[in-house]
Task: inverse folding
């Protein structure tokens, strides 16, 4: 019985570690919501679970080394293109397989105003909780 409980607990821990991570914010593109050094609990989710307004961790393949960015989801497939992004893209609606991502601090960040759409497959996780600032965790670059 003890072996069964131990196996179940080990499986639960493995599953939680595969789903949740703690990351550290590196940069000010999401200020004042998030600041340099903040720690966040993030959860990997399916694309179908993404919602506008969520803060997402996004793979940024255009940067060397597979940098991650942290941005707010401002538009999902089928949504109208937000006015701040309209000069960068020609379509009236966000195409299937893409999202619009924006920095809260528009003066200090690389987002859809600069890049256009981001592939929805590059959304790695969404923020579930802000933890205390300044501790260890995966560093997430916020700015270009």
Result:
């Amino acid at each position: 019985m003890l072996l069964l409980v131990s196996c179940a607990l080990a499986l639960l821990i493995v599953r939680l570690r595969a789903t949740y991570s703690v990351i550290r914010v590196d940069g000010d593109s999401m200020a004042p919501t998030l600041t340099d050094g903040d720690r966040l609990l993030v959860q990997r989710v399916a694309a179908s679970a993404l919602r506008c307004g969520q803060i997402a961790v996004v793979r940024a393949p255009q940067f060397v080394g597979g940098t991650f960015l942290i941005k707010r989801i401002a538009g999902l497939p089928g949504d109208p293109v937000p006015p701040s992004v309209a000069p960068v893209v020609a379509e009236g609606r966000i195409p299937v397989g893409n999202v619009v991502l924006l920095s809260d601090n528009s003066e200090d960040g690389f987002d859809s105003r600069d890049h256009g759409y981001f592939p929805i497959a590059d959304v790695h996780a969404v923020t579930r909780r802000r933890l205390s600032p300044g501790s260890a965790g995966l560093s997430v670059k916020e700015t270009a």
